[in-house]
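re the bet — no i am not wrong, look at it urself. input seq straight from the record:
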Amino acid sequence: MGSNDFEAKICHRVIKFPAVDGLSPIEQSTIVGQVEEKIHKIEDKMKIADSSKLAILAAYDFAVELYNLKQRSETNREADSKKVEEMVERLERTLSAAAPEEK
C-alpha cells in the first residue's frame, strides 16, 4: 500500500483502500459511504447476512449503473454528432445561397 492509501470503516470493518489519482479523502469517503449504503439496501431487501455475497451484489449493482450510464452517454454522443452534422449542412447551404455568384 502506498502512502496516500485511504482507510475507512465499512460494514463494521476497517479496510485500507488504495489511493486514487485525482480523488481527495473527502471524495473517497463519499464513495465508501455510497458502497456501504448500497450494501445495506441490498441486505435489507434480500435479507442476506453473507458479507462477501453482499459485496458481490453491490459491485454488480454499481456495474449495472455504470453500464447504463455508458450506454446513455454513447446514445447522447451519437445524437449530438448528428445534430452538429445537420447544423453544419444547414450553415453550408445558407452560406452558399448568400454568396454572390462568380462570373
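see?? The mean pLDDT is 90. told u. also The two ends are 75 Å apart (CA to CA). so pay up
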